[in-house]
Amino acid sequence: MKKQRGATVLDLLKLLIAIIVVVWSGIVIVSHLTDYAKEQVVSGQTKVLLVDFLNARKYAIEHNLRVVVCAKHDSNPLLCGSDWSNGWRIIAVNLQNQSKPFALSVQDTVILVRHSQDNVTFNTSLTSDNIVFNRTGMVNQGPMSYINICGISGQESSNQLHFRSQGRAEMVRVDSCE
Question: 108 is in which domain, residue-wise?
Fold first, then answer.
């Protein structure tokens, strides 16, 4: 009796099917992990901004001051920008500047400067470029004002921050980033 050498076509076909199954499973797993990682970046950035809003409101109430949260301006620290993707800053308005219409001055105290994630975008419907919490914690935005925090591709679901009538910010998950 002769010893059989090599593999049969059936053995090679079984091996090929096993390789295809392993590669396909790997592709599906990597795809889901990538989507999950993107959602976690958006979720994390949303939670950071939400906590910053809540802390700004708390600071305004505790210190009896007006506190401003605004998008960072690219070059001038005394100006608020309109692009929240640059990050944001929280500013306590000095006592002499409390009754005047809002304008930042050198005497104001910058409480926090935060940088945003590179792969996150922001869309807003704010009535002004800044959010001002007054001494009672109320906010200068209407009930329909919101900030959408989205992944860079815009395809992922996003989170939305909006303000309740008492000035508290809350997070809502939305399906699209518009």
Answer: 9-174
Would residue 154 count as lying in a domain? yes
Task: Look at residues 48, 46, 88 and name the one whose alpha carbon lies nearest to residue 71.
Answer: 88
Judged by phi (left if over 0) then psi (alpha if -120 to 50, else beta), residue 117 lies in beta
CB atoms within 10 A of CB 175: 8
pTM, entire model: 0.77
Q: Residue 1: inside a domain, yes or no?
A: no
What are the pLDDT digits (tens) for 107-165? 677 887 888 877 788 888 877 778 888 888 888 876 667 888 888 765 666 888 888 77
CATH number of residue 132's parent domain: 3.55.40.10
Tell me whether residue 120 is in a domain: yes
> Which string of b and e fits 24-47 if b means at least 16 CB within 10 Å?
eeeeeeeeeeeeeebbebbbebbe
Strand partners, 81: 71
